[in-house]
Structures are given as C-alpha cells and as structure tokens.
Amino acid sequence: MGHIPGRKKERFYERKLVIETIAVLPPLVTAAVGALVNLADPAKRTLGWWLAGATGWLALASILKVLHAAAQDRERKRSEDYDGLRGALCVLYEAVRQTAAVTTLGDGTVRVTIHRVILKSERLEQLLPYIGGVGGPAGRTFSTRSGLVGQAVRAKAPLSSTRKNQLHADFVKELIHDWFYPEEEARALTPDRQAWMAVPVLMPNGQVSAVVCLDSNVPDFFSDRVQDIVLNCCRGITAYIVEVY
Fold it and tell me: Is residue 2 situated within a structural domain?
C-alpha cells in the first residue's frame, strides 16, 4: 500500500488489451469457420448449429474479456501517469499562492513538485515537473542522505528552511556543509531559491511513500500560515495516494 510506481514507457505487447485480443481471435475464428462449413453440409447441419452456438458464446466471452482488459489498462495507466497527483499539486500551488498573496508576482515565486521513495534504496525520484516555474525535469533521482527533502524522509516530519547566504559561492558551500549535497548537485540547484519546505507522505504503516517539495525565491516565504495551508493540502494528497496506490 502506498508504493508509487516509477515512470515506465509501456510497450504495445505489455498492454492487456493487445494480449487478450490476440488470445481470443484464433478459437473464435476456428469456431466460426467450422460452423459455416458444417452448416453448408446438410449431413452435418446439426453439428454446424452447435458450432454456431459455441461461436456466439465465444464471441460474447471474448468481448467481455477484451472490455475487462481495456478497463485494467486504463486503471494501470491512471496509477502510473500521475495525473491525479498533478491535479492535487495544482490545488496546493494555488492555495499557497492565494494564502501568501503572491498572485501578482512572477513565475517561480513558489514552485511545487513531488518525489517518490524508491523501494529498497536510499533514493528519491522526482515524479513531475515543477508546477509554478521552470526547474529540473521529472525522472531525476536524489539521495535521502542530503538536502531538506532527504532529512524530511529520515525524520518522517515536515521541515522548512531559509537560505543563510546570498552569494552563490557561499550558498553552494552551505548546501555542501549544512545539507550534505555532493558538490555537483549543489552547483546544479536553482541559484535564486531562498526558502524551502518538504512534507513527507506517511502511509498507515508509518512508512514514507513520497515527499511534497516546495521552494520560493522569497526569503522566509513559508510563514506559519503558509505552512498550515501546505500541511492541510498534503493531508488530501496522502489520502489520494493511499486510495490509488
């Protein structure tokens, strides 16, 4: 429960609809041809009618199997395309913007994304591009041993932080020494970020399934009021993840 699958490019032969369609066609065609052949022969017409009935039965069963396979494909796609998570993060983003009264400020004032915890590893995977501004693409992975996000996973508690150093060189040192980022990752982070918040998504068994991540280019952006809104929205995100995954 609560394990969010990673991104996967589905091949056509992995779709249940394709597999079921291929599987049901040979017996259906065989039965139909047999029925036609036997119905055309007066001496075998009774067998032909039996085969015709079997063809109808197979056709009905085949339709049901194909429809069921299509429904399973849709359900799997729903759990893997993250559209529900994207919608939930959009709600969170707008709620934060309205609360902080930053609707008239520029793109990137506040950004939101979510990372999933990769099972049996100490890694996180970014599931969606940032909502609210340009940032690193989905699919990037990070260690749970560094950064505010990693600390939130380990502590299993929401955390927030504000940047101490304005000079970029000093900011990079801050990331390396205070937050244990590898130097390459520290230098790759968006340089104008001033404040961060990370909220772990806890499952009923106490395990962290994901982390909702927010950042801003405004110092001390995550006031107590903003944090309350974030936490309330994240309760809804947690409920969604428990329900879907």
Answer: no
Same domain, 126 and 207: yes
In angstroms, the CA 37 to CA 47 distance is 10
- What range does the domain containing 169 cover? 83-244
Residue 5 placed within a domain: no
Q: What does the pLDDT average to over 165-182? A: 89
Q: What number of other Cβ atoms are within 10 A of residue 190's Cβ?
A: 14
Overall number of domains in the chain: 2
User: Quick check: 76 pLDDT over 70?
Assistant: no
Could you tell me the pTM of the whole model?
Answer: 0.71
